[in-house]
Amino acid sequence: MATDDAIFQEDGASKPVKKIKAELGIVPMKWPPYSPDLKEAVTAVWNNVAFETTLQFIDSILDRVKEVIKKKGCGISW
Predict the structure, then answer these.
(1) Angstrom distances, CA of residue 64 to CA of 30, 36, 67, 78
(2) Domain map of the chain by residue range?
């Protein structure tokens, strides 16, 4: 894909990234630094991910404890 066809969207890129981008002639997409219309949706998605991850961790605790007891604390794989 040619850089003319690419869309580069950055969010606080570091100086080295900006330098590489300039060397390649990549022009970043102009977008607002803050999108209030998306904030609630993004927050809801991340809250759901965090909740599901927490539930999976809680569900796995019993199996993890059993493995620690069985192996007497040695060679535990997480």
Answers:
(1) 48, 41, 5, 8
(2) 1-31, 34-78
